[in-house]
Amino acid sequence: MSIRTLDDLLAEGVSGRRVLVRADLNVPLDKQTGAITDDGRIRAVLPTLGALTEAGAKVVVCSHLGRPKGSPDPQFSLSPVAGRLGELLGAPVHFATDTVGESAQATVSALADGEVALLENLRFNKGETSKDDAERGAFADQLAAFGDAYVDDAFGAVHRKHASVYDVPARLPHVAGRLVLREVEVLSTLTGNPERPYVVVLGGSKVSDKLAVIEALLPTVDRLLIGGGMCFTFLKAQGHEVGTSLLEKDMVETCRNLLERSEGKIMLPVDVVAADAFAPDAAHDVVPANGIPSHRVGLDIGPETVAGFAAALRGSSADGTANARTIFWNGPMGVFEMAAFANGTRGVAEAIAESDAFSVVGGGDSAAAVRALGLDEKSFGHISTGGGASLEYLEGKTLPGIAALEN
């Protein structure tokens, strides 16, 4: 892979130049207050922004937030992000109330060397996500007019063929930011020759979302631990009752085939936390994975499963397994947002953190769980900012944003 880096751009000199930075500032907001509930993605872009401002660049940041329908929607405004970004940078961030309109043009024009501006949500413009090349290209032309150079530091968006990710690099000198470079370096170790034993932990709700990565990983991993809502389709494939638990009926045969082909690599829960309802205060208890009552819903893996998964991660003298040397984790083990059903995710996350392995947390809900459960982020080798992007990278797919940087 041949990609120019931020260091290459800095070596050329950026003082007084406008640098357009595509960041991933798609942070979760509290629905009632609009407050940012997890600023991890904002923090992740600070090394790139800090290096540019220190070098005297006029930095123009653009990002999406949420899924607006191609027109302005106040609930998806990046305004609170501008405030938090300014706090973390220790300097005001000038906020444009539109993306490429009068406010954006005036805000960018007024930037002094070393200052930062943030444009309003890219997805307020239909051109950002358009499938039509001409419509997307026209929007990219407007964005590119704000920069003399382009930096992609939005790893969480590199799997999207969007104007700001795919089309703008074709219009400006372009480099990878600190975050994108680190993400690619880390994930390439997993697809190359990872140190063994190599153990992957997958959770989340749907098998269909993870099928491609399971297919890609099965030949290369030593163990594949499956929890979360997706485990119930596998349990059904083994012939077990799963009650009212999340089930993809059309995936049962696929899971059966995966189990047959896995050569014993796949580990499934042996017990689950089953509840009367999907609610934080629902009555619940631990039941065997092959004995879930027909009226109950599985919302977490049980303590025996946590112990078994931990043994597979840390190694166990009882069954002769060696300590994992490389771990990739994507997807929670249960409904961790509800305290009663967070123990599985916490237990597995702690086992990963305490292992001697090089561990990669695959973004999305897994990264959110690490922070929500108060775990030390430094205990993990790398926490990705892109759940979907990291999975597609491991699947071996061509990521449009990375391809655009290589050109």
UniProtKB/TrEMBL annotation:
The keyword Magnesium does not apply. PROSITE patterns: PGLYCERATE_KINASE (PS00111). It is found in: Cytoplasm. CDD domains: Phosphoglycerate_kinase. It catalyses: (2R)-3-phosphoglycerate + ATP = (2R)-3-phospho-glyceroyl phosphate + ADP. GO terms for molecular function: kinase activity. It holds the Pfam family PGK. Keywords: ATP-binding, Cytoplasm, Glycolysis, Kinase, Nucleotide-binding, Transferase. It is an enzyme of class 2 (transferase). ATP binds at residues 210, 298, 337, 363-366. InterPro entries: Phosphoglycerate_kinase, Phosphoglycerate_kinase_CS, Phosphoglycerate_kinase_N, Phosphoglycerate_kinase_sf. It comes from the Bacteria. Substrate binds at residues 24-26, 41, 64-67, 123, 160. The keyword Nucleotide-binding applies. This is Phosphoglycerate kinase. The gene is pgk.
